[in-house]
Automatic annotation (TrEMBL):
Species assigned in the record: Duganella zoogloeoides
Keyword Hydrolase assigned: yes
Name of the protein in question: Prolyl oligopeptidase family serine peptidase
Xref: InterPro entries: AB_hydrolase_fold, Peptidase_S9_cat
Alphabetical UniProt keywords: Hydrolase, Signal
Pfam families: Peptidase_S9
Coiled coil location: none
Signal sequence segment: 1-24
Residue span(s) of domain Peptidase S9 prolyl oligopeptidase catalytic: 453-665
Length: 666
């Protein structure tokens, strides 16, 4: 069985995984970037005595292992997972002696159903808590007096309770029998040994709950409901049976951005709220139902994006993980701030400390090290001695010296709006402008990237392409004005931002204007297709996977998993109304203008895609193929909206490499 490095003391040379190899060395293959990670889901136990992880074996199966934190060479294998048909979705500690893990059957057509298990760290007392199959029969076989306690599909793990018990929190989804997605949910406690299920609270609940928030004693205190395009936050006191409305507004477009995030142990909650056009972190007094006058943390130029570090002994906030242009950590606790300084002095890059539930008392910290040129590496740090032991890298074949550097910029679009963008340059000094790819993120109402390692950008840069990743208007994370400026701008101003990014990169001297491609998945696939049609003089080739091809079809496809709430409200706000905006839909739907697309195009789609059903790809392919022999369509069985299986990822990216080499590099 494969064992990852266990004894590497992280001096600088070791941290760089062997230093920079000669540039003439063979480039790492596609598999080095897109194989299932060698190491994943690494979690330190609540008291810091053990570390759990998924380890890829030589035969590509995954083993879930638990190792001693002070001697990682000693450990126990708890499960072996067939990586071809099953993926590990999560590993989580229930208490110091018990572990939970979530598996996803990659041949199950649902996008939400997961299997949940629990097991002791010595390998005993394994329980199948939740079935990920609708075909699972809860009743016992005829003639048996014992019924299965495994919960049927429609339940999902939410969180551990951090009180030392064997309990976890799970959500039960409520269905309306007409849609694939649930209309609401209810929260329960589940004992992972007895499998006894109890309600997490008493009393009724608001309708259409999409998000639960518990305090640091695992008591549900705040929920977010979404009805008729309005998002409402409700609050309850710990022992109350009624809920009080503390905030309500349009889910999109009002710039208010009031979002409860986490508790700090008192009767205060931290929320994201508007501050000078951006989302900032505020303290909200639940007793007074009042927001503090000034934010706790604001990040000018960026919406607050972060996670709390909570010590569940003291129930206090110790620090915050933040993302601006890159990841960072703010520590409010002096001891952990000092630990961070020592670790940063020894390990170049961005180091995120993980210390689980009993953070202050933990003798060993788990560190995830990140840079733009190296995939994540994991290190165990002993606080008393400063000793560091490396656990390994998620992609150990990658060498930093062969990888390009990433940088963050802002450029002005044609209407004067500043657009953030990440650029990854190939390694080495260029004698002339290089070929480039505009890599468009999906969503589109999400943030696309950060400075740290990006598999796709790193791979493309390793093959000699400048990779341009615009954070175009309509995406989250860069202020409410940036988000709302993209409403009803599919194919219009959102698309202009992508063309402007390519032209800006040309002006920097990085990019050959005659060798620019565009590619992306989902919305990025849509942007690729309309970009080839709208700007044929700029974009020479395109690669689109899981891409939208017709705006109207998003509202009418019988195979789509879009909920009625999304169809009637959010999609009409962000994309447009299929009735009143019919001309806009015609103008900016690639399918309606397929005859205009003449450049080389590679299309790919999952047969079981419910988010963007396969008919988007097949209709578009038929329409383009009649006038363009340079288009190809690949379909993948047992794949949904994005590539889940290793065999698919490797096949797809090998095809991308060949396609770009043939049509763009020269």
């Amino acid at each position: 069985m494969r064992r990852l490095p266990l004894s590497c003391l992280f001096a600088l040379a070791c941290a760089l995984t062997g230093g920079a190899p000669a540039l003439a060395a063979p480039l790492p293959p596609v598999s080095a970037f897109f194989e299932t990670p060698h190491l994943s889901h690494v979690k330190i136990s609540p008291k810091g005595s053990m570390v759990a992880m998924a380890v890829r074996q030589d035969d590509s199966t995954l083993a879930i292992e638990v190792r001693d934190a002070d001697n990682p060479g000693k450990g126990t294998r708890l499960a072996l997972v067939d990586n071809v048909n099953v993926g590990i979705s999560d590993i989580h500690w229930i208490n110091e002696k018990r572990l939970g893990y979530t598996l996803k059957n990659l041949r199950n057509n649902s996008t939400t159903l997961l299997d949940e298990f629990a097991i002791d760290v010595d390998g005993n007392e394994r329980r199948h808590l939740i079935s990920g199959s609708w075909n699972f029969q809860k009743e016992a076989p005829i003639g048996s007096l014992i019924s299965s306690r495994t919960l049927p599909a429609g339940h999902m793990y939410v969180d551990s309770v951090h009180d030392g018990s064997d309990d976890i929190l799970i959500a039960k989804f409520i269905w309306n029998n007409t849609e694939i997605m649930s209309e609401s949910s209810r929260l329960y406690r589940l004992n992972t040994r007895t499998q006894r299920l109890t309600s997490a609270f008493e009393g009724s609940q608001p309708p259409a709950i999409k998000r639960w928030m518990t305090d640091n004693a695992a008591v549900p205190r705040i929920v977010t409901s979404r009805v008729g395009g309005r998002c409402t936050s409700f609050y309850r006191k710990p022992n109350d049976t009624t809920w009080t409305d503390i905030d309500s507004g349009e889910c999109l477009g009002d710039g208010k951005r009031f979002t409860p995030l986490f508790f700090d142990g008192s009767d205060s909650v931290y929320v994201q709220a508007a501050h000078q056009g951006y989302g900032a972190l505020y303290r909200y007094d639940l007793a007074a139902m009042k927001l503090d006058p000034e934010p706790v943390v604001s990040t000018p130029g960026f919406d607050f994006s972060g996670e709390p570090v909570i010590d569940f002994d003291s129930k206090r906030l110790l620090g915050l993980y933040l993302t601006t242009d890159a990841n960072t950590t703010i520590w409010f606790n002096a001891a952990l701030k000092a630990d961070q300084a020592k670790i940063d002095a020894a390990l170049p890059g961005i180091n995120r400390i993980n210390c689980a539930a009993h953070c202050l008392a933990s003798p060993i910290l788990l560190v995830r090290r990140e840079t733009d040129r190296m995939p994540s590496e994991y290190v165990l740090y002993t606080r008393a001695t400063g000793k560091m032991i490396g656990l390994g890298s998620i992609h150990p074949e990658i060498k930093a010296g062969q990888m390009g550097e990433r940088s963050f910029h802002r450029y002005k679009a044609r209407d004067g709006r500043e657009i953030p963008v990440y650029v990854t340059l190939p390694v080495g000094k260029a004698d002339a402008p290089r070929p480039a790819v505009v890599l468009v993120h999906g969503g589109p109402m999400v943030r696309g990237s950060s400075w740290e390692w990006d598999d796709e950008a790193a791979f493309l840069a390793s093959r000699g392409y400048v990779v341009i990743q615009p954070e175009f208007r309509g995406g989250d994370g860069f202020g409410s004005a940036h988000l709302t400026a993209g409403f009803r701008q599919w194919g219009a101003a959102m698309q202009d931002d992508l063309a402007d990014a390519a032209q800006w990169a040309v002006k920097q001297g990085w990019v050959d204007p005659g060798r620019i491609g565009i590619m992306g998945a989902s919305y990025g696939g849509y942007a690729t297709l309309i970009g080839l049609i709208k700007d044929p003089q700029l974009f020479r080739v395109g690669v689109a996977w899981a891409g939208v091809t017709d705006l109207g079809l998003m509202f009418t496809s019988s195979m789509s998993d879009a909920t009625r709430e999304n169809l009637d409200y959010s999609m009409r706000t962000t994309i447009g109304d299929p009735d009143t905006d019919a001309e806009l839909f015609r103008k900016y739907s690639p399918l309606q203008r397929a005859g205009e697309l003449k450049q080389p195009l590679l299309l790919a789609h999952g047969v079981d895609d419910k988010r963007v059903p396969l008919e988007h790809a097949t209709r578009f392919y038929r329409a383009v193929k009649s006038n363009n022999p340079k288009v190809a369509l690949i379909t993948y069985d047992d794949e949904q909206h994005g590539w889940r299986k290793q065999e698919t990822r490797l096949d797809f990216w090998k095809r991308v490499e060949t396609f770009l080499d043939t049509n763009l590099k020269q």
